[in-house]
Amino acid sequence: xxxxxxxxxxxxxxxxxxxxxxxxxxxxxxxxxxxxxxxxxxxxxxxxxxxxxxxxxxxxxxxxxxxxxxxxxxxxxxxxxxxxxxxxxxxxxxxxxxxxxxxxxxxxxxxxxxxxxxxxxxxxxxxxxxxx
Length: 132
Ligand SMILES: [Zn+2]
Prior knowledge:
The protein is α+β, with helices and mostly antiparallel strands. The chain has five helices and six strands, in the order ααββββαααββ.
C-alpha cells in the first residue's frame, strides 16, 4: 500500500520538474527510511528488479536492459531522503556491492561533491540532470 503511494508521489514530483524538494519526502510524511523499499526500478515493467552488471542494468523480472537506470534511482533517493548522499547510501539504495561501482555511478551524474574521500557526500540540483 505504502509503496503505491510512493510511486504516485514520485511520478508526480518528476512531472513537476521542481528545482529542489525541501524538506525531503521522508520528513514531510514522517516515513521511516527502513519502510522504503530499495532497489532500482525497471523503466519497462515499473517494478524494482534491476541488477547491476558490467554493461549497465538488467531487469531480473522482464529482461529489459538499461545503461542509465541508476540515474532515476539516485534522483529518487534525493527526493526521499534529502540532500547529502554517501557512497554507502548509494550502495544500499541501488543494491550495489562494490564501493568502486557506486563511486562510478555517482560521478557519472553531475552531482556536487563535498568533503574528502571518506566523508564525501554528493548533492544534486534536480533540474541540472537531464531526464533519460
Ligand atoms: Zn522489468
